[in-house]
Amino acid sequence: MKYHTITLLALLTVASSFAQNTTEEKQKSVEDYAATITSKELKEMLYIYAGDDMRGRMTGSKGQKLAVNYLKDFYVAQGINSALKDGTYFQTVPAQYLTRLKEPADSENVVAFIEGSEFPDEIIVLSAHLDHVGVDQNGNVFNGADDDGSGTIAMLEMAEAFQRAVKEGNGPRRSILFLHVTGEEIGLYGSRYYTENPIFPLENTVCNLNTDMIGRIAPDKVDTPNYIYLIGSDRLSQELHDVSAQIAKKYSDLEIDYTYNDPEDPNRFYFRSDHYNFAKKNIPVIFYFNGVHEDYHKISDTPDKIAYDLMAKRTKLIFHTAWEIANREKRITADKL
Ligand SMILES: [Zn+2]
Predict the structure, then answer these.
(1) Contact 290, 225 (CB under 8 A)
(2) What span, in angstroms and rounded, lies between the C-alpha atoms of 205 and 237?
(3) Is residue 1's pLDDT more than 50?
(4) Which one, of 180, 233, 182, 174, lies nearest residue 205 by Cα?
(5) How many angstroms is it from 221 CA to the middle of ligand 1?
(6) Helices and strands of the chain, counted as H and E runs
């Protein structure tokens, strides 16, 4: 009898711990998903994406075609759908639109999509430019590891984290468009094309979080490298700015530096990356940026110089912000218009 009692107790203990485990599985938090964003994976992918084989990803070139196929293959492997009904993942930007291209050629934005579970028509756009400046006269490759290999690969890691949440029943309530734009370096063409030919109505586009250069430390930040510059967050929406600041405080120990958000700042970074095309259409934006550095637009912007742990922290911050905007009760609005 005693023996049996013990067995029964043991069985009950096992059963109750099993029940606990299943509950824990269901109650996974945003932090669990953020934790799947790792410096190791960022590094592995960035070495490929900014490798010499991609030939500097000049808009319309063979290298750029390799790059878009790399992105498409990633989304296919993750089971993340195209944002287009034809399932191609490629929004063609025609050669005649790319007026500053020396050798006319069609190019393409890469578009992947996770549909929201409750408010599928409300779209959060995550963006990064997929192109760079090609090769120099001597055939040296501009790898563009930071610009903007870093933002591109950060988006893939975020997509993977969101998709894992979807698979476990914790997908975002609003939809997320992963928009890899082409033609940035020749004049923000891909993002302009998207905002003029949107796949989803712009009035349903909640905000654009744009990531362009998040893998390096600017020379004036060498002594305080735990930072990221945020630009534009309060220009159209105080609500977006406040949510972004709260999330940063709650989930990140990064110093959020708003120096370049000053409208008087002579660098005018607010106008210099793809988010600006969304801002022009009155869609609230945040631009995530590490500042310029000695290898900016040089052949020395290589993947070995990226600070991967820092890049992972910055990616997690953007992920947390996107998660909050996608899941909060009410949609963010452009309350400063
Ligand atoms: Zn860039």
Answers:
(1) no
(2) 13
(3) no
(4) 174
(5) 19
(6) 9, 9
Q: Which residue range is the domain that position 3 belongs to?
A: 1-29
Tally of domains in the chain: 2
CA 328 – ligand 1 centroid, Å? 30
Same domain for 75 and 3: no
Residue ranges of the alpha helices (H) in 79-187? 151-167
Region for 33 from its dihedrals, namely left if φ exceeds 0, alpha if ψ lies in -120 to 50, beta otherwise: alpha
- Of the chain, the percentage scoring pLDDT greater than 90 comes to 91
CA–centroid distance, residue 71 to ligand 1 (Å): 17
Q: Is 335 within the bounds of a domain? A: no
Give the residue with greater pLDDT, 12 vs 58: 58
Distance 129 CA to ligand 1 centre (A): 7
Question: What predicted TM-score, i.e. pTM, was given to this entire model?
Answer: 0.92
* Pair 66, 90 in one domain: yes
Q: What is the pLDDT of residue 27?
A: 83
CATH number at residue 222: 3.40.630.10
CB distance 173 to 118 below 8 Å: yes
Q: Which of 29, 74, 317 is nearest to 168 (CA)?
A: 29
Q: Is residue 92 part of a domain?
A: yes
The answer to whether 182 touches 59, Cβ cutoff 8 Å, is: yes
